[in-house]
Amino acid sequence: MSDREKIREELTAELRELRAKLEEAEGALRAVGSGAVEGREAHRLSGARQELKERQRAEEALRQSENEFRAMFEVASIGMAQADVRTGQWVRVNQKMCAITGYSAEELLQRRVFDITHPEDRQRDWELFQRVVRGELPDYRLEKRYLRKDGAVAWVNVNMAVLRDAAGQPTRTLAAIEDISERKAAERRLRQLSRAVEQTASTVVITDLHGDIEYANPRFTETTGYDLGEALGRNMRMLKSGSSPAAAYAELWRTITSGQTWHGEFHNKKKNGELYWEFASISPVTDEHGAVSHLVAVKEDITERKVAQEALRQSEERFRTLFELAPDGIYLCDLEGKFVDGNHAAEQLVGYPREELIGKSFLTLNLLSESDLPKATRALARNAQGQATGPEEYVLTRKDGRQVPVEIRTFPVKIGDNALVLGVARDLTERVQLEAQLRQAQKMEGIGQLAGGVAHDFNNLLAVMRGNADLLLMETEQHSPETNDCLKQIAAAAERAAALTRQLLIFSRKQTLQAQPLVLNGLVNNLTKMLKRVIREDIRLECRYEEPLPFVQADPGMLEQALLNLVVNARDAMAGGGRLLITTEKVSLDSNHAQRNTEARAGEFVCLSVSDTGTGIAPEHLPRIFEPFFTTKEPGKGTGLGLATVYGIVKQHQGWVEVSSQVGSGTTFKVFLPAIPAPSETGAAEAQAELRGGNETILLVEDDYSVRVIMRAVLERFNYKVLEATCAREAVEVWAPNAGEIALLLTDIVMPEGVTGRALAEQLRARKPELKVILMSGYSAEVIGRNTEFFRRTGSYFLQKPCATATLIRAVRNCLDAKRPAGAKG
After folding, report:
1. Which of 154, 356, 590, 680 could crosslink 352 through cysteines, CB 3.0-4.6 Å?
2. Which pLDDT tens digit goes with each residue over 21-52?
3. Domain containing 421: what range?
């Protein structure tokens, strides 16, 4: 039975007792009166005494009953009231009733019951009142509202019954009124609390001390997927995902059992297995004795927030990584130029660690020169106005005093409430050096072009000298031995001069590979005398050759240049003297070796190595040593082209270079060139074979008079008919009447009037596809660069100027005797 039902039962019993006492008193009075009337006739004398006694007893009983009723009525702990059944007028009220309504007894007795009943309750109250009066109900119970004198509303619980006379007619109502305003307010607050808990956006769970669920609001189901029916009686452990450490749960229980509220995060698991994050506040609930009886948890799903936080963390980590790894110096400063942050590149740029930068300005650290200060001040002023600046060039003074040219851009940014400047500083040191190197390279290119032009003109002179000497040597019987020796010396000098021009053409980048089978041992040995002049006396040169060594297909001049560059590089690395070792060996490389070097491959090779005992190369420099213009030497002591040239020459020979170095011990360069089979003897026999001429007609086109004259003399000496022209225009004029008999076009590539030898050849071959062609030039690079396709398509020949008489005659005869290549077109 609830408390409310108990109170109602007690009120009903009390009301019935009061009503019984009233009816008992009224019955006694009626009994006395009735007895007196009936006994008057029969027992006038004897009954008088008896009547008096009974009246006295009745009156005494009435007084006692009235006193008891009055006492009970007045001192009742609930409101008591009587009202007239006809008018509803209050006829009797106790003090508790006055306290409930706020009216005095006198004021209430002047009012009817329905005068202070709330308008919304009057109809129902009246209907029940009438049913009781009509005898349809013995009594009734009703919760209703009174309008208090002060205007407030008082909730009451009314138990009302009707008092009837001896005839059974209703006379008065008797009501017991309990003030339930506080209970109603509590119920209202409880309903509000219940609605709030049910409708809150947070999960609310009540458990016993073991964590078994006794209550959960709808949000619990929305969050976890468990219906309330599924959850009740189950332990909260059903939500554990296993990702939270046991120590966290231990701390939770320590906090709760100490009577405190625990706050923290859980990584829990829903019914469908999906993981989610929630923030929980778990508080102990105590009973009336102060002992903890339950736990209440208020939880908020923070999955989206955690995901956003994780995304933000990852984003910040990415940007911090980008910030730190950016090659440019990036910094943040305030509008006064005080540094707030800076990345690693910024630290490296100025030489100050971050902790020394933060809080200081570029003025405090003397980073800028006096001439750059106004520019920096203007940039900060523009940043304060929301404008970006730059790029502008500055010269920074590092902590170690070294000056660094930089290019700085600045951007206004706002982080929180702080107006800051984001600066990006780029080190221009390398660019400045590259610009200087470019200027040097352009200067060298100009010198190279000059050297190439000189070599070209010199070649023409040598061609005349060599040609005339060869012609005279063909008539040795007509000269004295002394004269023949002089002629041979002239020819040899011309050959050496031609070799010199080839070196000039290499320098000017106008010489391409002229490969021939050779053995490196002989090349290195022949170069030894020159190498000894290149190195210093405090450097000991040692050469070790493997015998026999396979042949390689190589250009002797280019390989000599590469070896010379390596020796010079080794010399410069041994400032205090040392040992220079040059070795040759045959090596057989397998796939394992090839895997260790991306340029290497398996097979048979000849290895030329140059080792020194110098300073060595720093590990961070090794990857860049073959880059053009890269050098670790002091400014003005190296172009940075030496090793780059070595690399280019070796690559042109289908080889590669491997380097090993140890700082303080020395460096070894190994050049690997493909080994080839030994050449046949046919080439040597051909060189010694008698030169063969012919009777064909040759159109010779050469703008240099001396060269043209000597070449004509040589050709006519071997019975060829020669037609001359100085340029393409003259050649076409000579061609017109003689096209039928001309078998070979022998023409220089570079000619006056803008028409090249190749263009002339294309024009004449269009008229006569079977025409044979030999192109001549001192610039062999032009042949490789622009005319390779022409040679492949037409089967034409190329002749390097200057050339020996034998070379010219063999080339002419071979070209005239050669068959056209398959698919060759005019």
Report:
1. 356
2. 555 555 544 444 444 444 444 445 455 566 66
3. 326-427
